[in-house]
Amino acid sequence: MDHAARIWADAAAQRDHKPLPEDGSNALAGIHRRLALPEARLVVASKATVPAGFTISSPHDGYLEIYYVAVAPNFWGQGVARELLADVDRHAQNAGVQELRLWVIAENSRATDLYQANGYRDSGQELADETTGRIELLLSKTMG
């Protein structure tokens, strides 16, 4: 979990053009909260034994929700996120889940483009994040 927290903290700082944090402690609470959900699944991807990215997902009422897809900034553009999303797809298929959902910050075009290239579509639902006030879009993917 510490690796995941550090990856998330660094990626969010880079995305938001803020200084890199000293550690990932500010991200641990959110990760712990999501991992406490029933059947939550954490997958960490590594490159040359270095943690490069992670996902956290959990089933909900007939669909699988992805809470985190994060890649350490020094691994951006190397296919780590695509590999992680493919792993989530395999997991959903093995579990018999037909729909995947995730929320993405509307202004995060890098992430939105990645998700759309991997079969996710805008559901038309949006919300303002309670903490940041940023608009988030709900994307979904139907498994074939």
Automatic annotation (TrEMBL):
Keyword Acyltransferase recorded: yes
Q: Which UniProt keywords apply?
A: Acyltransferase, Transferase
Give the matching CDD domains: NAT_SF
UniProt cross-references to Pfam families, sorted A to Z: Acetyltransf_1
The keyword Nucleotide-binding is annotated on this UniProt entry: no
Record GO terms (molecular function): acyltransferase activity, transferring groups other than amino-acyl groups
Q: Which Gene3D superfamilies match?
A: 3.40.630.30
Where does the record place the N-acetyltransferase domain?
1-144
List, alphabetically, the InterPro entries matched. Answer: Acyl_CoA_acyltransferase, Bact_Acetyltransf, GNAT_dom
Q: Which SUPFAM superfamilies match?
A: Acyl-CoA N-acyltransferases (Nat)
PANTHER family, A to Z? AMINOALKYLPHOSPHONATE N-ACETYLTRANSFERASE-RELATED, AMINOALKYLPHOSPHONATE N-ACETYLTRANSFERASE-RELATED-RELATED
Name recorded for this polypeptide: N-acetyltransferase domain-containing protein
The organism named in the record is: Glutamicibacter arilaitensis
